[in-house]
Design brief:
Elements: H1 7-10, H2 22-35, E1 40-43, H3 48-54, E2 68-72, H4 75-87, E3 92-96, E4 105-109, E5 119-122
Length: 124
């Protein structure tokens, strides 16, 4: 897919489909090049059925568009990645930075939608 992100890590965990959008992946790769550290994708593309099982957004959440990823990160690196994500123009940023370090992540998306963007939120 790109130099730092492979099809397998971006594919839906239930069916193996991978429908990430090229423009989004270019933006993510540019972020990765500047961040200059590994970015472990814990969730990339999700088919509608899988998304409805794992997310409150149902069959039409951000991951089903091919314009969203969750990146495993915590602590100082999360702070750094958050700042760069804003600088690189990601318009949806979700933060899960509580609990076990291994469950912490930053959601990044770039959706073209009608409600106000950019936006940032936290997960419980």
């Amino acid at each position: 897919m790109t130099e730092h992100f492979k099809d397998k890590e971006l594919a839906c965990k239930c069916c193996g489909k991978q429908q990430m959008r090229v423009g989004f992946m270019s933006q993510l790769e540019a972020l990765r090049m500047t961040y200059d550290k590994p970015m472990i994708v814990t969730s990339g593309y999700r088919c509608p059925d899988h998304n409805s099982k794992v997310s409150s957004t149902g069959k039409f959440g951000p991951h089903t568009t091919g314009c969203a990823v969750d990146i495993a990160v915590h602590g100082r690196r999360a702070y750094e990645l958050l700042g760069l994500a804003i600088r690189f123009g990601f318009t949806g940023i979700g933060l899960k930075q509580s609990g076990d370090n291994f469950g912490r992540f930053i959601h990044l998306d770039n959706l073209l939608i009608d409600y106000p963007r950019p936006t940032i939120w936290t997960y419980k």
